[in-house]
């Protein structure tokens, strides 16, 4: 009787253990990030600088900025996330923590998901919070700013999840930043297109439900597949290191 009961208990224990491990990895990454504030602030400063300098370098006309503002903010957010991806696994790889995570009894994809979630909280979420201020700077209207923030809230986690695959594949390589950009930017293009298209549709008064549904589908697809792909890429990178 006891032997028959054990298989029913193990999945529950594995789930609880996996969630506890995710919580511990997530909290650790937040603590480490706040100790290295320079790495934390660089993407945000880059985001603000790109949006601020663009009108000076192209055109300060209100009509132009209102039309191109969503694209400016989305491209700046994409590049800011890309700038921070190299640090997603790099510090843990350098100090040996990553090897210990791979050896843990919990599934590696859960730990990768926790690290990716921490990366989004530290990088993507601040970009979403800054977007309304910068949206006013490029003369976006109130409804367009709200839709822009919503698209960034849905789209930036997709950028982090897809980026985790590239960061895992290029781990330990020289000139990893350049190779990471070449691998990841083509995969970012659909998110960029639908993110800016949603804001453009809102500015014209059209329905944005279809655009948001597609962004949500991208998020669900990335959330389902990216942690598995990134964990497999990590194992390959560590075996070749």
Automatic annotation (TrEMBL):
Main location: membrane
UniProt keyword terms in alphabetical order: Cell inner membrane, Cell membrane, Cytochrome c-type biogenesis, Membrane, Transmembrane, Transmembrane helix, Transport
Family: Belongs to the CcmB/CycW/HelB family.
Species for this entry: Marinobacter salinisoli
Record membrane topology: Multi-pass membrane protein
Protein name in UniProt: Heme exporter protein B
Transmembrane intervals: 40-58, 70-89, 109-133, 145-171, 178-203, 209-234
Intracellular or extracellular location(s): Cell inner membrane
Pfam assignment, any one: CcmB
Superkingdom of origin: Bacteria
UniProt-listed InterPro entries: Cyt_c_biogenesis_CcmB, Cyt_c_CcmB_bac
Gene: ccmB
Physiological role: Required for the export of heme to the periplasm for the biogenesis of c-type cytochromes.
């Amino acid at each position: 009787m006891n032997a028959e009961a054990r298989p029913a208990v193990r999945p529950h224990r594995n789930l609880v253990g996996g969630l506890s491990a995710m919580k511990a990895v997530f909290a650790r990454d937040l603590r480490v990030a706040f100790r290295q504030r320079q790495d934390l602030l660089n993407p945000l400063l880059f985001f603000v600088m790109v949006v601020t300098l663009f009108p000076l370098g192209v055109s300060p006309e209100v009509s132009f900025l209102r039309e191109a503002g969503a694209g400016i903010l989305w491209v700046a957010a994409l590049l800011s996330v890309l700038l921070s991806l190299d640090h997603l696994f790099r510090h843990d790889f350098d100090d040996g923590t990553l090897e210990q995570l791979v050896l843990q009894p919990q599934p590696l994809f859960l730990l990768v998901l926790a690290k990716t979630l921490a990366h989004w909280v530290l990088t993507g979420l601040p970009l979403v919070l800054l977007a309304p201020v910068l949206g006013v700077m490029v003369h976006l209207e109130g409804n367009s700013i709200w839709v822009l923030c919503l698209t960034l809230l849905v789209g930036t986690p997709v950028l982090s999840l897809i980026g985790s695959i590239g960061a895992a594949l290029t781990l330990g390589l020289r000139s990893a930043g350049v190779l990471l950009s070449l691998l990841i930017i083509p995969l970012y293009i659909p998110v960029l297109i639908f993110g800016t298209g949603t804001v453009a549709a809102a500015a014209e008064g059209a329905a944005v439900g279809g655009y948001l549904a597609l962004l949500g589908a991208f998020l669900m697809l990335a959330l389902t597949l990216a942690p598995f792909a990134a964990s497999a890429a990590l194992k390959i990178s560590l075996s070749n290191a």
